[in-house]
Specification:
The chain has about 270 residues and is α+β, with helices and mostly antiparallel strands. It is about 35% helix and about 25% strand. The strands form 4 sheets. A 7-stranded mixed sheet has the order 3-4-5-6-7-8-9, sandwiched between helices. The protein starts with a helix and ends with a helix.
């Protein structure tokens, strides 16, 4: 990466951090205030006035600042124009809307800059927890200004995994014996951030996650010494025509092969 690109992504990181904090403040103004709610995806997913207000804030700040960048947001109708852009913003105004609406604090604003299919700057802002995660390609992952690192626990130690009990029961018994299953974490982006800061050793992401759930958290995890990969160990590619993903695994880089092998044994059993 050239010095020019480093400077560009660092500038983008400052921009998206400020935008995420502004959008987070807007969303937080609706928190525990019973905002109006609608249902999408054939009635399966809630979206609130807070989601739309935060999205409007992000869009007005970011698209004005970088008019040549593409745009992909959970709360904006998709535009195929993004496919012609080398660089774009990928955002989720509130990741964890169900948690937000039920008064839980585990929700965040997720903003990433993606260049040629991979994130180069990423921010997660959790206003109710007063936590700001950020990373830029080639740099350190940070939480509230302090460097992050994934867990150093080895394969012979207990692994704290965020995984459904129904899935875990299908894993090999020797693997299950070393797993401490963690309770459900309603924001997928925040769950991946918990792997980045060492509170979890790993997580499996069910199929049908979207670019906006993953892009910022993916980079934060990578810069903290981890990885988010598919079941063949390949990194996630963003800004494709299809923005949904199959089963994914997140963990410290030295542990990913172990987790994938355990999943493969489950599939073949």
């Amino acid at each position: 990466m050239s010095d020019r690109e480093k400077g560009r992504w660092q500038s983008d990181l400052a921009l998206i951090a400020d935008a995420a904090k502004e959008a987070g403040a807007v969303a937080f103004g609706f928190f525990n205030q019973s905002p109006e709610v609608w249902w999408k995806n054939e009635g399966r997913s809630p979206v609130s006035a807070a989601d739309f207000a935060a999205n409007k804030t992000l869009e007005s700040i970011l698209r004005e600042a970088r008019p040549d960048y593409g745009w992909l947001s959970e709360e904006t109708e998709d535009d195929a124009d993004r496919l012609s852009r080398e660089t774009l913003f990928i955002v989720d105004p509130i990741d964890g809307t169900r948690a937000f609406l039920s008064g839980q604090k585990v929700w965040c604003v997720s903003v990433a800059v993606v260049h040629r299919g991979r994130p180069v700057a990423g921010v997660l802002y959790a206003p109710a927890l007063e936590e700001l995660y950020q990373a830029v390609e080639g740099g350190l992952a940070m939480k509230n200004g302090m460097p992050l690192a994934v867990s150093a626990a080895g394969a012979d130690e207990t692994s704290r995994l965020a995984i459904g009990e129904d899935l875990l029961t299908t894993f090999p018994s020797a693997f299950r014996a070393r797993v401490a299953r963690q309770k459900y974490i309603p924001s997928l982006a925040y769950r991946i951030a918990m792997v980045a800061d060492g509170r979890l050793e790993g997580t499996f992401v069910k199929g049908n996650s979207h670019d906006w759930d993953l892009a910022a958290a993916d980079l934060i995890l990578a810069c903290a010494g981890g990885g988010l990969v598919d079941l063949e160990g390949r990194p996630v590619v963003y800004n494709s025509a299809d923005i949904t993903h199959k089963v994914l695994c997140a963990g410290p880089a030295p542990r990913i092969d172990e987790f994938l092998a355990a999943f493969a044994e489950r599939r073949d059993s």
